[in-house]
Structures are given as C-alpha cells and as structure tokens.
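On clarity, I found the account of how folds are encoded harder to follow than it need be. Since the whole study asks how a given chain folds, the encoding of that fold should be made plain. For the editor and my fellow referees, an illustration may be useful. An entry of this sort, consisting of the sequence and the corresponding backbone structure tokens, reads as follows:

:::
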Amino acid sequence: MCWHCDNPGKTRDDYLVEEVRPLIRKYGWMVQTVERGSVHPGFAYTVGLTDAGLPELVVTGLRERRSGQLLNYFAQQVVRSGPPEAGEVLPAAVGWPSFEIVPLSSPPAHLLTAVLLYGEEFRALQLVYEDEHGKWPWDRDFRGGTGGQPVLGVRGRG
C-alpha cells in the first residue's frame, strides 16, 4: 500500500516533510516506487541525488523489492564514482544483467516526487536491462520485466 493510501487526508507536502526529506537526510536519497497499473508496468526511481548535483536513477518493469535493491546499489556507485554516461553499458554483475544507460527525455513527466522537491529542472538516467538471453527492449525478441520494460528516453547509441 502506498503512503498516500495509508494516510488519507494528508497532503503531498506532508509526504515530503514526514517521509521523503527524512530519508534523504539519513541516506542521501530515497527510492520512490510507482505501483503497476492495469496497463502500465510499475517503475521506481531515486529522489535526492539531485541535491548532490547528480541525476536521479530510474528502472521500469521490475518488482518493487528488486527495483529498490537495484537503485540503492547504483545510487551508492553514482555517489562514489559519478554518474555513468548516456549509452554506456554497465557489465553484468552477480545477480544482475547488463544495463545500458538511457537519459530520460522528460524526467518531470514521470518522477512526480522529484518534481515536488526540485521543480521541473533535474536530470534522470534510466537503467535499461537486458533479458536472460542478452536481448534489449529495442530488440524484436526481447522478453523481460514484469509487464514489459518501457524505455523513457532516447538511446545514446545505435
């Protein structure tokens, strides 16, 4: 269940004050999940990396727990080493596939909690993953993700 559903009568500002800002102060970022709908797969993204001058990170089509693990892992890497470049392919690691970095075309269209904190001016990178056969969402025979893996930007490579 979502925070808003568990707290009827509270506002988005209450959510920022009671939930989002304390998590960002404690950890440097938080992971916001968006539940899967009847037509759209779920997705998750970081909020708080912008405070450090870094792009927020996004992943689509994974279950909530897996999304959180992935985003927390990569957020730590980005804070330590800086963000990856658009089009960069990050090699597979134990338990994870390879990822290609795709900048979001319009981050504010998807990342509402980040918009509430930062307005319309922030950057975001999507971690696009390959399936178990090494195929990507732009490949015709890609099969992966829970309900698909929408790519929210334009690939930086061909």
